[in-house]
Design goal:
Number of strands: 19
Radius of gyration: 29 Å
Helix content: 25-40%
Distance between the termini: 39 Å
Oligomer: single chain
Number of domains: 2
CATH topology of the largest domain: Rossmann fold
CATH superfamily of the largest domain: Alpha/Beta hydrolase fold, catalytic domain
CATH class of the largest domain: Alpha Beta
Amino acid sequence: MPEHQDLSDLEIRPTRGLKPLLDRVVRTRWLAHAVALLAAAAVAADRKMPMYRPELQLQHEVVEACRRSLRDGAARRKTVKTERDWVAWRASVRASFREAFPDALFERGRDLKARVVSSQEFDDYRVENVLFESLPGWEVNGSVYLPKEPGEYPGVVCPTGHSSKQNESYQQSAQVFARNGYIAISFDPPGCAGEIQHLNDHFTNGLIGYLTGFWSQTHFVADAIACLDYLDSREDVDHDLGLSITGVSGGGITSFSTALVDDRVKFVGPVCCLAEHESLHLTGLYTSCPEQFGPGYIAGGLDYVDYIAALAPTPCLIAGGKTDEVFDYRSTQRIYRDVERIYRVAGAPDSCGLFIDENSGHAYTVAMANEMVRWMNRVIKGVDDAPLSLDDADVLMIDGSLLLCHPSNDVNMFTINRDEGRRLADERPGLTGEALRESVEAALGTSRDAKLVRAEARTEPKTSWHALVEEIDIQPADGTHLPSLMFTHVEDKSPRPGMLWIDDQGKWAAFRHGAFLCNALRMYEPDCLPNQPRILSMDVSGLGSLAPEPTAYDLAGWNDIERILTHLSVANSRPIMGLRVRDALRGLDYLRSRPEVDLDRLIIGGRGVGAIVALHAAVLDGNIDRVICLEGLSHYGALTEEFPFSWQESIMIPGILRRYDLPDLAGACRGVHVINPADAQGSPVGQDVGDALYGGSQVVVRCGVDGGAETVAAVMASWSELGTA
């Protein structure tokens, strides 16, 4: 009987439900644990302690790690008490924020190629529809709202939220600004309801940008910066007064993001876009878009309050709606109180304000726009003039067709990531040895030097003919449990090859009902072949029995528990793939602890996502003799070449294509077998594609074959010629 038993898999109920458990204890003769079971049940009943739920484990680990990072950030923010503290803190926040963006965002001096598409005259203002470029070939569809009378006026950029500039929130605010003597430019964001939708889905095309560095917020901010450039180029904009930026929802996030990286912004007005990560994402698990999750932002302790506070001393009016369905006004008020303190330390106590529209939900109302004008008059024009007395009845919608610009869609998120992926593949340094391992560790946010916390048997071993099956609980970190199966031989205990298997279909999938790895177990045979492996099959974070359970927000089409956990993990510099590779490394630790495993003959393999995990773990371990990748992703570059993709979003590793790709890892390992690799849509690639990707290295590539049979052949192959058997 194992020395330690873990009871976490038992559902312990209050006292009246203990008899079935006691019967189980007696039947299995685990008398030594009966008292512990009864005591644990009583404690659970009295304290109403939650039982271990594997489907919540990934959620718990990701969320708690983010909380630790954000607590550290809050503690640093609280130390800002003097102007000197503020200068250092602000520089650190802005540097961290800027670092997440690619260098292309900050290139200046490009020809905007601006041209007027159409002009419209209305009773109280004019509109010019214009096109100009932000990134090369990418056209911004600007609608410029101008005062009725020609002259020089201050400029205002009005980023649209995840909607269309034709909608009420965007027409009304821009009209109010123009009628109050400002030149306001509104434009559609990529991938939403406007004119720039095709291959610009910010949830999917934008997600792929994590791989190349052109993550989704790059495009939103690039367009806003181009609007600043465009206003700077106009002769009717008063360049001496400075530029303002104000938008609602996603447009509000674009507003403060742009102000943090471009000093031309002299006033910021974020509307209905502020909440703490805790309330919106960690407790609520609402799936916000990836624009809110810059790589490393949470790891740096950055919350929404930091973004706004780091704007100081730039004047900023925060606006919110009392009945906002997404960004609770009370959360906005809490953020304002913290921001106000930082502005006081910065010596600008009157440069930060809060306006809550009592009659508004998630919208940019005329009342909010009026208040923005009041602030812009004071901080931009230097006058105390009140805004025009306008209400909803005074600001009428115009036909949306009058705002169309018909931008080209030849360049989009997909083509930019595709071209950047190709460029990186051509220019990427061919790392090897320790340099490659360090790069992998950095990309995954994991360390090869971490140690296994503990491993315990969950049940007594069971026999299936000559196969011995053990359920093992492997714990790579406190509070993290990896349900695992250890397959050995009933009679033969002599050292044999050891194999770790990771399957995205679950730890039983390759064995149950005589599946292909049963052939390697030879469970009906009394003898044990020299090459017959001892196999540890393990569910790693987010796969198999550890797949995360949906949340209430998943009722909405854009919400998905895996998606929000992916976003959070990327922002915390601990991508889910890093957790999975950590799990695999600790599984190898356990495998090495087994006396019936030959430490000189170690195999790691996996299927689907598990194959990607196996390859990374083999590189970090450095002492694996054979690697088997069944039906894995052919290479991360494939995700930039095709759309849509069918792989789990949690396979994202930010910046991976700047560092390496899967063929680079395979070339650094011994005895690699790549079997039926798949493209972005999960379809098998041809042998010619496989050879082109992995050619020139000691990698065996088999495409279009019986994957199970080929896997077993690789497992059982002779050890005399590693990598060529």
